[in-house]
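Our consortium's second objective concerns turning raw sequence data into structural hypotheses that experimental partners can test. To show how far this objective has progressed, the report includes one record in full. It was chosen at random from the queue rather than selected for favorable results. The single chain below, 231 residues long, was entered without modification.
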Amino acid sequence: MTWLVERPIAHRGLHRGTDVPENSLLAFEMAIREGYPVELDIQFLADETPVVFHDNTLGRMTGRDEMVCRQTCAEIRSLRLCGTDQPIPLFDEVLQFVGGRVPLLIEVNNEAAVGRREAGVWGLLQAYAGEFAIHSLNPATLEWFLINAPHVCRGQLCSSQGADILSLDIRSDPDFIAYDHHHLPNRWVEEERVKRNIPVIAWTIRTPEAYARVRPYAENVIFEGFRISEP
């Protein structure tokens, strides 16, 4: 998976405020035009259909104060992001839209029982010809992919120094670590990096200054809000 360290990864696409909403087909197209890999988020609808959306609730992006996990496909299709004409895309729609033009870094957000949701994601990815990797805060999600799709590249997401580093356990067995840049450098991360001989990807970088600061401690970054021109 050399692409994971070759080119900075666009966080939820190359979005721009409310004009180009995050996790929209337009944001993904903007990233594709500039050759950036795309990071995206998966939530699950009431029937466990995977949908590309970050928050557990719809309010911030649509103004509708309801849980994503209680929506049907029909209800989701009726909504638009940030007052634009951009719909909330289903995961299979994004796969068809991107079509392998750039690699995908797919965050699977599953706080429910592990198994059916991961199987649904994998069922769609098996037919996908493009490059991709999975990452998740839930080590059990990564364990599912380790057992059922061991060739899929897996990353352990961690959000802070201390307790979350314990997610880097034997069952997760990640191929890379995705870590909150605010807590780098971090001796726990560096120990795992050396012990496992795996790359660290820092998230989410929002300024050139943050990018310059974190580069010695990470092989790559997930970024938003500005452009990173170097490979």
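The partners drew two points from this record. The chain has a mean pLDDT of 93. The longest helix spans residues 116-125. Both points have been shared with the crystallography group to help prioritize constructs.
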